[in-house]
Amino acid sequence: AARLCSGAGGEAEAAGGAGAMLRHLARKLRASGPVTVAEYMREALTNPGQGYYTRRGGVGESGDFITSPEISQVFGELIGIWYISEWMAMGKPSTFQLVELGPGRGTLTEDILRVFKQLSSVLSKCDVSVHLVEVSPKLSEIQAVMLTGGKVQPSPEDESAYMKGISKTGIPIFWYRDIQDVPPGYSFYLAHEFFDALPIHKFQQRTEKGWREVLVDIDPEVPDQLRFVLSPSRTPATQNFIQPEETRDHVEVCPEAGVIVQRLASRIEKDGGAALVADYGHDGTKTDTFRGFRNHKLHDVLSAPGTADLTADVDFSYLRKMAQGKTATLGPIKQREFLKNMGIDLRLQVLLQNSGDTATREQLLHSYDMLMNPEKMGDCFNFFALLPLHRLAHPDKKDKPESKSPLPPVAGFHELLLK
């Protein structure tokens, strides 16, 4: 199920394409010494020639992991409803940019756009556009086929987007390599299984020496095999990222996630909108979560680099800290709570009533179980939101509290009231 929350069979054999990446890393390590886990992840996942995402990007049944949108259309539909609910709660602004970070195959965006079409009367006076931040040329091609039927064109070099097209439902879509290229404006951001693939630094507490960073190096006894080592002294990352109040003995920090959240928070503070993050994660409690996935099984993170997806649980307490002062935050709450609050049970009943055959009904129930069962994805997946500060508290409540109408609840994080 997805990138499994807990153990599955191990797999350590190297695949055909692994050799080139391993040789490249081995040369690098022999020349310059051990590298941080963050640098190792960056090479293994996004190296232009041999990186996992640039070369493969195995989402879906035939790939290395399945994501929630691939399991059930209901997942994306409920997220689409979340955005419309928040857009309405914020006074129905006249423009609406949907910005997705790392859109995978485009399945989630397609499900959201279907909801937008079904509720087109609600959005009729709103200028809606879709903006996808995608570094993988292969995945952007797959997204283009899914969302536009392949009717896309490269953008002129002076434009920030590298590709553009029109969705099957008539909405303009733009592709970018970096969130900073997305034009400013009232935007809703979506990061589904995006932060868990960003490079992490790993640290271990050694009482006699204090904190040491975990590094990746060549194993001197086994040629071309990688191993973890501890830095002999404090690294710059150790000094910058370990909080004085830290009580765990093993910590993972993702500075890139912090930078991206700060950018999102600044944009929301300036232009309005909201961000929804859905990912594996914890609230500053877990220690070692770095793992690899290949062919839907756990895979040794140091074996056959470039052939497996590498991931680490998102530390939502760190994201909250990075957004502080600019936006309000909600969550993390477990996926099953969020989807229940969004009305998944009612939606399931409607789909079951409308499905004519047993196989479809069985598939719907199986998908629901995958998404909601605490033993599967229901508990290990979390939802987290960034919202403008005034969305959760009236700015001048202290002055005239009696004159303020109550703020509408935030869907998903409170129970959605179905009128």
| CATH architectural label of the largest domain | 3-Layer(aba) Sandwich
Cα Rg? 22 Å
Largest sheet at a glance?
10 strands, mixed
Q: What shape does the CA trace take?
A: globular
CATH topology name of the largest domain: Rossmann fold
Oligomer: single chain
Helix-strand makeup class: alpha/beta
Main features:
419 residues, alpha/beta, Rossmann fold, 2 domains, five-stranded antiparallel β-sheet, globular, NDUFAF7_sf, transit peptide, SAM-dependent_MTases_sf, transferase, EC 2.1.1.320
Structural overview:
Strands 2, 3, 4, 5, 6, 7, 12, 16, 17 and 18 form a 10-stranded mixed sheet that branches. The model is unreliable at 1-16 and 60-65 (pLDDT under 50). The chain has 419 residues and is α/β, with parallel strands linked by helices. It has 2 domains: 18-50 and 201-251, no CATH class; 68-199 and 255-285 and 301-391, Rossmann fold (3-Layer(aba) Sandwich). It has 14 helices and 18 strands. It has helices spanning 18-32, 37-46, 52-55, 68-71, 73-89, 107-118, 137-148, 236-241, 255-271, 316-323, 335-341, 344-354, 358-372, 389-392, and strands at 35-36, 95-101, 127-133, 152-154, 163-166, 172-176, 187-192, 201-206, 210-218, 226-230, 250-253, 273-282, 291-294, 297-299, 309-311, 314-315, 327-334, 381-388.
